[in-house]
Amino acid sequence: MRTQRSLGVLRQQVWPANGDCEKHVTSIRELRNLLLYAGVDKDKYEELLPSIHEENRILLNRFSLLAAVMFFVLTVASAFYRGFADINRATYLFCSVEMLIILLCSRFVLPKHPALVMPVVYVFEITLFAFGVHISMLHAEKPAVSAVAFLLVSPLLFYDRPIRLYALIAIVVAAFCGIVIRFKTPDVAESDVWNMVTFGMVAVATTAFIMSIKIRALAQSKQIEYMGQTDLLTGVKNRNYYESRLREYPKLCTSNLCCVYADANGLHEMNNKHGHAAGDKMLCEVAEAIQRRFGKEDTYRIGGDEFVGFRADGRLEDLTLEVDQLRRSLSAKGYHVSFGIAAREKVRGKVDMRDLVNEAEINMFADKREFYRKSENDRRSR
After folding, report:
1. What is the pLDDT of residues 22-59, one digit of tens each?
2. Domain range summary for the chain, segments of one domain joined by +
3. CATH architecture for segment(s) 239-381
4. Contacts for 324-329 with beta carbons within 8 Å, 24 or more apart?
5. CA separation for the pair 259, 308 (Å, rounded)
6. In whole angstroms, what is the distance from residue 97 CA to residue 214 CA?
7. Does the pLDDT of residue 337 top 80, yes or no?
8. Contacts with 91 (C-beta within 8 Å, 6 or more apart), sequence order
9. pTM, two decimal places
10. How would DSSP label each residue in 313-352?
11. What is the pLDDT of residue 4?
12. Higher per-residue pLDDT: 4 or 209
């Protein structure tokens, strides 16, 4: 008995309680997410990637413009000043040209190729680091200041995974320390190495903290944006987003614009007979079917059982066939949806959107009357 009791005590000491294990696992998971995904989980970070790339492209556009102007001003100023600035003139000119190239890429190339955003961001940051190291080495008898300043600031300019920024900071610190030990006097090199290592650790700590705040704030803003634009029941865009985008459609088409107006028949009867859960299911399946045809950004729920979809530069004949197929597929599930179709040619860059939607709605009502004209579909028989 005593031996069994002793083994039980030993087991408790060696193996923590289930609650403690869960706490350890949670702590490890949180640490992993902090290092790899700035405090959010992997799925959320991957969901944010398009937004991260777009935010970085906008920031790159702004910072590269600011840097190009700064280096250009320094290049011009160095032409009229002897000494420190005169020595750096070629460096200023090279950096101003490179920043101008990055600026042009951020405006004309990266919007079409978002996968290239992060490589260009790294080129921008490495250029700043290299500039700081180069300036420090031109004056080997003095302690480095600019390299340390860029080390602290550059990792905080953009959105990125902290682990990548840590690797970049480590590479910069190691490269800088190797260069100053090789080319500077021992007393200055020792001071530079200590300063760079110290502020490198500061950069790692601040990067972890600030990047977590930035990514979480971006995730929260996207969640608010999603809730403001999306119908939470069906997942398609809501009426608010529909009203805000309506005037943009003439800019999205080159020749014509088509509109489909849909109304789910029998929602009220479905709710009364089978309950609201059945009615909600019908709306969700109808919305999903329409969204598959018109896309996530061009399908809207604008009323209780009313949906609108748009297609730019499509043939009316093809769209009519698609709507017929959509009608039959929904009918096979026991849902009856009335559709109205309208199209407008783009004249002098304009499309009368209200007139287009109104015509599609009128055609939908005609289709609905035809549906209920049949005795088996007459509301009075229900």
Report:
1. 776 677 888 888 889 998 999 999 999 999 999 999 99
2. 2-31, 38-229, 239-381
3. 2-Layer Sandwich (3.30)
4. 326/289, 326/290, 326/293, 329/289
5. 7
6. 30
7. yes
8. 131, 134, 135, 138
9. 0.78
10. T--HHHHHHHHHHHHHHHHHTT-EEEEEEEEEE-BTTB--
11. 53
12. 209
